[in-house]
Amino acid sequence: MAKLAARVAALSIALFAVNVYVCRELFTIEYLRHMGSIEAAFISLARYVRDNWTDLSWFPLWYGGIPYQDSYPPLMHALVAAVAGFTHWSPALAYHATAAFVYCAGPVTLFWLCWRLSGRLGASFFAGLFYSLVSPSALLIENVRRDVGGLMRPRRFQTLIVYGEDPHVMGLTLLGVSILLLDYASEKRRPWAYVLAAVSFAATALTNWLAGAALAIGVVALVLASEFPQIRNRVIGAVLIGAIAYALAAPLVPPSTIRTIQFNARTIEGDFTHYTDGLILRLAALAAAIAATKWGLTRIRASRALQFGAYFTLVTGAITLGWAYAQIVFVPQPHRYHTEMEWGIAILIAFSADAIAARMPKRAAAALACLALILAVPFARSSRRYARGLLEEVDITQRVELRLGRWLKANMPEARVMVPGSISWFLNAFTDNPQLGGGFDQGTTNYQIRVATYLMYWTSGDTNLDAEASIAWLKTFGVQAIAIGGPKSGEFYKPYQNPSKFVGKLDELWREGDDVLYRVPQRNSSLAHVMTRAQLPPRTPYNGVDLDALRPYLRALDDPQLPLAAMRWTSRHSAVIGASLTPDQIVSVQITHHPGWRAAVNGRDVPVSADRVGQTVVEPRCSGACSIELRYDGGEEMLAARALHWIAIVGSFIWIAAALYFDVRKRVAPPRP
Questions:
Q1: Is the pTM of this model over 0.90?
Q2: What's the CA gap between 210 and 171, in Å, rounded?
Q3: pLDDT at 368
Q4: What are the Cα distances from residue 222, in Å, to 6, 121, 348?
């Protein structure tokens, strides 16, 4: 047993070392030159968590404010924040060190899973090695091959560095652990094993939404890879573990968050709004293919590991290759599942080769293993050269993302701003300025903000209309400044189609080359405004240039006859508003509405509702000087989610303790006569 453990440890270290060889500089890099990577948004989230870890219910910095759990699945950011806090590293350095570790650990957890399923160390090691160095998607998908630049370059590393898929990579690293623990729990059928698997399930889902989907696919693949008499018990165990996992994670993935992500995912990186049309037929065809594969693999008595790899690859391959070859859609954003497909292919290739080697003479099998190791060398060297080219630091002090952020922090520290592209992703790594945009559009709970943001970048061809419509939406959402980048902007994406639309119409606050920050005229810099209900937007705008729906509200914002309201944040989820009111007046608060917002005047609860553009309306129903306490508690849904969370924790402890108690009693009970 000790020798086996030593061999497992040695092979695990070897796999980890191979990946360290590829990416070793990543452990010590602060900022990379890939300014278009979404990792900047994740660094911003990690900084926010580090600085506000006791106040993570409402997230006021993106999209006019959103529930914190909608900002992104939080596990990666929480881990990075913990590393940054413990080491006193910057969030950026902590992020890259954590990402490097997770990247190197991914093939190791895949190796552990394969060993668990097969008991064969050699084949399991080669699965991890294949996953470390080979990118099958570059062979199978032309767009991937063109993007990564060749067949011998590591796509997994490119997605990590160039595109910032660090949480996705972490999810795949945890996927191997979760499936391993599910299999272990299904065999042992002990409460502590079920709970441990549930914790791992929850952790996987809380890294990345795609990893959560991959976990579901992995569970199905494991069940299908089982012998028929075992399937029933494995299904029951998987359902039990999944239920405990969801209960544990419920405050971070309540139903409203799931609905928000699903809704927005249909219109991000493509139009997938009609993906459900004909989905039943596509799923039926996939089920038939899985059934045929099960029949065939059962007839040839394929190993469990080989079956698992085949089923996982079949499903992820259908998602990825169906889209790449025929534009067939099983899920929104199907092109992103090619990293999951590669994970499955590594298992499939290794254990297909193992099945062939098992029928060969021992010397021939050993020669095949040696050949595989020899072939790994050029792939490792190619991966290393490619990684070295990508792992270049940037002097962040020379970048517009930092320079504009510092200016805003010094001169407009509380102002809501609209900034484009890479500046938006980086901004909150340096400052707490709230934004109209943000770093995770799938978490936007107010669709009208997506409409407004699209309008800012779009052009009608009429500069006057572009400026008028943009200013109208900026004022509607309480934006005090907007950054514009021209063709020579230092910002990465340069998304504005008409960057000159504000010239001569708005005052410049800051300029650096082709990057300009304009002041948006506001009568009151507060996010709270006194008006009557009749002055709210009468209907939801049909589109971004339907300004008639906004005009009554815009007139109220500029009306000098209306009293001013002052608003002061008292925490990340609460504020105090002061104004002189009459009973018929309301307060429009330019914060995204959510059922979890509450308001009180002198200890008396008052109504809170949403207006037609998704912002918050408070009805104080008071006369004279009024002080309104506004707070976010998540509402009834979050109350139920927290209750479910604690029931799961307490129930798990009781279940484990009871099982241990009865085990002890059984062991010490005197034998029956």
A1: yes
A2: 8
A3: 86
A4: 27, 19, 13
* Exposed e or buried b per residue across 529-566, where buried means at least 16 C-beta atoms within 10 angstroms of its C-beta: bbbeeebbbeeebeebbebebbebbbebbeeeebeebe
Chain centroid to CA 280: how far? 27
Give the least confident one: 508-517, 591-600, 653-662.
653-662
Per-residue burial over 637-661, b = 16 or more CB atoms within 10 Å of its CB, e = otherwise: bbeebeebbeebeeebeeebeeeee
Per-residue pLDDT tens over the stretch 387-415? 999 999 999 999 999 999 999 999 999 99
| Measured distance CA(651)–CA(657) in Å, rounded | 10
User: What gap in Å lies between CA 74 and CA 167, rounded to an integer?
Assistant: 9
- 228-249 and 166-188 are packed helices; what angle lies between their axes, rounded to 10 degrees? 130
pLDDT at 358: 86
Which tokens go with 436?
């109209």
CA–CA distance, 198 with 246 (Å, rounded to integer): 8
Sign (positive or negative) of CA dihedral 605, 609, 611, 613:
positive
Q: How far apart are CA 457 and CA 268, in angstroms?
A: 16
The overall average pLDDT reported for the chain is 95
349 in Cβ contact with 130 (< 8 Å): yes
What are 167's two structure tokens? 């949480």
Give how far the C-alpha of residue 312 lies from the chain's centroid of Cα atoms, to the nearest Å.
Answer: 22
Rounded CA separation 225/240 (Å):
19
How deeply is 322 buried, as exposed, middle or buried, from its count of CB atoms within 10 A (0-12, 13-18, 19+)?
middle
Q: What is the pLDDT of residue 122?
A: 93
Q: State how far the Cα of 44 lies from the Cα of 123, in Å rounded to an integer.
A: 41
Between the alpha carbon of residue 471 and those of residues 468, 475, 479, 552, 612, the distances in Å are: 5, 6, 9, 15, 18
Quick one: 379 exposed, middle or buried, by C-beta within 10 A (0-12, 13-18, 19+)?
A: buried
HEC readout, 569-626: EEECCEEEEEEEECCCEEEEEEEECCCCEEEEECCEEECEEECCCCEEEECCCCCEEE
Contacts of 533-539 with C-beta under 8 Å, sequence gap 24+, read 533/586, 533/617, 536/586, 536/588, 536/611, 536/612, 536/617, 537/476, 537/611, 537/612, 537/613, 538/612, 539/612
Euclidean distance between CA atoms 669 and 662, whole angstroms:
10
Q: How far is CA 601 from CA 310, 380, 527, 590, in A?
A: 62, 66, 18, 19
Burial class (CB in 10 A: 0-12, 13-18, 19+), 464: exposed
* Residue whose C-alpha is closest to residue 45's, from 425, 412, 405: 425
Residue 60 has pLDDT above 80, yes or no: yes
Residue 58's SS3 state is strand
Decide if 582 contacts 612 (C-beta within 8 A): no
pLDDT in tens, 328-385: 999 999 999 999 999 999 999 999 999 998 888 888 888 888 988 999 999 999 999 9
Residue of 524, 521, 520, 550 whose CA lies nearest to 535: 550
Q: How far apart are CA 544 and CA 553, in angstroms?
A: 15
Predicted confidence band at 272 (pLDDT cuts at 50, 70, 90)?
very high
Strand 597-601 with 417-418, pairing: unpaired
Give the model confidence (pLDDT) of 642-661 as tens digits. Answer: 999 999 999 999 999 999 88
Half-sphere exposure of 490 (CA within 13 A, CB side): 17
Q: Per-residue pLDDT averaged across 524-535, rounded?
A: 96
Phi, psi values for residue 581, rounded to 5°: -130, 160
Please count the helices (runs of H) and the strands (runs of E) in the chain. Answer: 23, 15
